[in-house]
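Chapter summary example.
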Amino acid sequence: MKTVIHKADTRGFADHGWLKSYHSFSFANYYDPNRMNFGALRVLNDDIVQPKMGFGTHPHQNMEIISIPLKGALSHKDNMGNKRAIEVDEVQVMSAGTGLTHSEFNDSKTEAVNFLQLWIIPEEKNVKPNYQQKLFKSDLRQNKLQTIVAPKDKLIDDALPISQQAYIYRTVLDEGKSIELKLKSNHNGIYIFVVEGTIEVGEFMLDKRDAIGLSEFDSAAIFAAKQSHLIIIEVPMI
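The structure predicted for these 238 residues follows.
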């Protein structure tokens, strides 16, 4: 098994006043040649947007973009006619493909928004842009894997589709509980991001906002030393 550890305090950080952003991988002005990606996972940003602030209209192309709100609600508007708020327990996916533009804004006057944004390199370029969002009930991830994103040609459960052989899972493990991970393909790896809590993966102890990447393995167990909320991303190791 190959492993890579990304401790929370080693992430890139940008403070724009209205936005505080922690970068697990090289992004914008943060550059580390050893942290360009984990397989097809190119970006994992942990963003905090202040009240009545947001991202103005900007373009994306040929990228699978997944947004997961952790606190607050983020308003979304794009050139495909979508205009919706994304709230806690919802997930948004955009296949940027041939190109799209969108904006994201925190409409609250008092509460900051905290959300994770992931970029996954697509397996096919120049697809027709696609936008979807869905609510995933929190009780369906208690001590088990809840699939929130899957390949568009292999959709399982109520997962949202992307143009890549990648899967994103969410789970909340009670203290003392464990879960076993098995890859969908031997060509894949798994990146485990600790939203909250403390977990053990083999010899490694991981705390809030730490992450571990695993590849070249058959199965791996996660043990919750205390109640833990995890985002687990399985991607081709391109």
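To summarize the output: The two ends are 17 Å apart (CA to CA).
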